[in-house]
Amino acid sequence: MLLIQFLNALQFSMTLFLLAVGLTIIFGLMKIVNLAHGSLYMIGAYLGLSICNYTDSFWLALIVAPLLTALIGAILYYLLFRHIQNADPMKQVLLTFGLIYISLDSVRLLWGTMSHSISAPDILSNSILLINEPYPSYRLFVIAIGLIVLFTLYIILEKTKIGAKVRASVDDPETAQLLQINTDKILFYTFALGCGLAGLAGITVAPILGVEPGMDMEVLVLTLIVVVVGGPGSLKGAIIGSLLIGFVDSFGKVYIPQLAQIIIYAVMALTILFRPDGLYKR
Amino acid sequence: MRAVNHNPQLRSQLFFLLLFSAIIANIFGGYFTRFFVAEIVILSIFAISLDFIASRGGMVSLGHAMFLGIGAYTTAILSLNYGISPFASTFLTFITACLIGLIIAYFIVLLDGIFFIMVTLALGEMFNSWVFTSDYLGGSDGISGIMRPDLAFIGIDTNSPLIFTFYVLLWLIGIYYLLIKITDAPLGRNLDAIRQNSNRISAIGGYTRAYKAIAFSLSAGIASVAGSLYVQLNGFISPELTHWTVSGEGLIMIIVGGIGSISGAILGATVVHIVQHELSSIINWWMLVIGFGFIFIVLFMKDGLWGLLEKIQKKLR
Amino acid sequence: MSLSLNNIDKSFGSIKVLNNVNIQSHGRECLGIIGPNGAGKSTLFKVISGNLKQDKGDIYFNSLNINNLNINKRARLGISQSFQKNSLFLEMTVKESIMLALSHKYKITFKMLNSLINNKAINNDAIEIAKDTGLLDYFDTKSDNLSYGLQRQLELGIAISCSPKLLLLDEPTAGMSPAETKEIIKLIKKLSAKYSIIIVEHDMDVIYELANRIYVLDRGTLIFEGDAKSVKNSELVQNKYLGI
């Protein structure tokens, strides 16, 4: 039983991670808090839903939905976000709030207000026996995706030239500009990547949680908390933060439902007070 | 972030215009119109509270719905469980919210802009979760049966929509004048300066943390008055009032109206509430339209409707 | 007024920016701190004003150890600074900015109900300061609309509003044309009759004109101290600055 809960928590953490990592790098690079990040998660799920319905292939949806979401992110960057980088917080809040409204109604117009479901592909629709307990293999798959993304990002950030440029731009944007690390391009690709990861989170989680309007809000606050606690701009912070919050939330809901939410917010409040740069400063 | 004050003349002109319109609508309108006007007045008070800290101290709060909730729930509990008159409860919630606001403010006012927003968001959500799950506060059903102030002893029946709307208007007028005084006083000016350049205020020996904390505390109190009046208007409170999107909508009102002029906040609340109401009765996808509207305003009308009015005023000279 | 910096060390990572710096200033004087780029002048300035904390060493101001006091507290003790990059209240007029600064001197910043602008005493004081800093003609101009030189003058105006015991000036002539520089020098000369001043400057000619006494900083270490004449004649200083 404990193992089951552990794995559930891990799966939830991985989903949070996919969302948080995009948000944190965008925040570290552009000092933008994209409140509409949850909307991208939702859009990814809906796009995946349609692709699944038209092509009967979950795998196709898994690949194409995040790409489409990344494309939407790229368009949003080009049209809107690059104008409000480093702009005052009020502007960002309102702009992204507007995007939340627009995405919510768009989704309702295009797909209706009912909730939908996507079935996991046949290969992953069974359960695997782990220490005599059956566990849905799809959830293991979600965990695997999260780990693959973590590993890939780690390699990119730490071992490649472009990764070094991203890290430089997060650490010291002025110097990076002076060194002509072409930060505009980096911002563009990173933003699109972050959005794509949000979309990936949406489609991977859809077979478990379903697809419905309102799913954008459910994850938003927790994701923001992960970013704040883990430290904006830090990959390490994103994964540690996701695990911390993911586990507290999952175990909390089971054992101490009344207190779980409060504990999470308290963790965030304490982090802000005593380690305002987050647990892992970039 | 720019504030659009420094034009006291336009500020009062706009205020009187809006006040006059509200009075006319209240006298000649039917039941629904009067209710609607009262709602606008209460939303204006909420908007003013957000405007105050945004323009004085540069603090953008996504958690202020929490103080709406504190105002509403405290009034509900005081009047239902302890028999305190709703009128007195409004004052008591003001004090309570100011104190709670002060304590919170001590910890958070020195945070950088984005962090401040995130912390207020999280604090607001904390309150929201608590309220949803608390049995004492009625959980997801909320509390109902709250009465309006009993002014029978001076022959006034606050259950009449006409009277109650005038009652909330009086609160608005009081808050308006209080804030004008504060805006032009040393504290208000220092707060305005902090929004523009908080480092310099530190460098000339200002008590930045204290000023901002006082502003936040006052703002919390004012928001709680809005909450208290809201629960008296409707007779019930449900926890949805404390969701962060309510705070977000408040921020939208002040940017539509124009930040920093108090009257702008009232104008913003009026316009947004009317547009939202009218639009939602015509089309289902009104959020889509409003969403585009926000983005348009943020990008192209930084000074909101106030900015527009100022330009018109200049042209008429 | 007395200021003592004793054995100040400051490093950023592995780079030692200030190395055993000792500075004394007593009574009213105009003290200059010069050095080539990268000498640590900016850092030293920030350590005195409270923007940075030193790693080692003590700072005494009027016999009080101010090591652990932040900018606000030091300002209240009488240490006022003007910034290298203009730090103004751009939406406020000259009059409003100075009156705001004066509200701190008059200790009325917590007052919530009386208008600041209508305060007669502060109004008169503000006019005096505007006169002293050559801004009287621009009293009602928005700070944003002032020329760069005038903005620098306002920068000084705000700094002296609190009647400081010690005025710290960080590269006051930065970015100025020769004509503007002349104006500022005249202004600072006037101010040095009233206030104790420490100027950190890059432009040696400016310092020669203004300072009674000069400290020369090179790569974090004080290499010379003396009046303008002895600094000019010092071979050591010439070597470091001009590489002769």
List the main descriptive attributes of the protein structure presented here.
heterotrimer; A: 282 residues; mainly alpha; ABC transporter involved in vitamin B12 uptake, BtuC; two-stranded antiparallel sheet; 76% helix; C: 244 residues; alpha/beta; Rossmann fold; 9 helices
What does this structure look like?
- The complex is a heterotrimer of chains A (282), B (317) and C (244).
- Chain A is mostly helical and 282 residues long.
- Chain A has one domain (2-274): Orthogonal Bundle (ABC transporter involved in vitamin B12 uptake, BtuC), CATH 1.10.3470.
- Chain A has eleven helices and two strands; from the N terminus they run H-H-H-H-E-E-H-H-H-H-H-H-H.
- Chain A has helices at residues 2-30, 37-55, 58-79, 89-111, 137-159, 161-171, 173-178, 183-209, 215-230, 235-255, 257-274; strands spanning 127-130, 133-136.
- A two-stranded antiparallel ribbon of chain A has the order 1-2.
- In chain A, a hairpin with a 2-residue loop joins strand 1 and strand 2 (133-136).
- In chain A, helix 1 packs across helix 9.
- The model of chain A has no long low-confidence stretch (mean pLDDT 86).
- The model of chain B has no long low-confidence stretch (mean pLDDT 89).
- Chain B is 75% helix and 1% strand.
- Chain B starts with 7 loop residues before the first helix and ends with a helix.
- In chain B, strands 1-2 form a two-stranded antiparallel sheet.
- Chain B has a single domain (8-316), classed as ABC transporter involved in vitamin B12 uptake, BtuC, CATH 1.10.3470.
- The longest helix of chain C has 15 residues, at 178-192.
- In chain C, helix 3 (94-105) crosses helix 4 (120-132).
- The chains are: A mainly alpha (282), B mainly alpha (317), C alpha/beta (244).
- Chains in contact: A-B, B-C.
- The A-B interface holds A 27, 31, 33, 80, 83, 88-95, 97-102, 104-106, 108-109, 217, 221, 224-225, 227-228, 257-258, 261-262, 265-266, 268-269, 272-273, 276 and B 1, 54, 58, 60, 62, 107-108, 111, 113-119, 121-123, 125-126, 129-130, 133, 244-245, 248, 251-252, 255, 259, 284-288, 290-295, 297-299, 302.
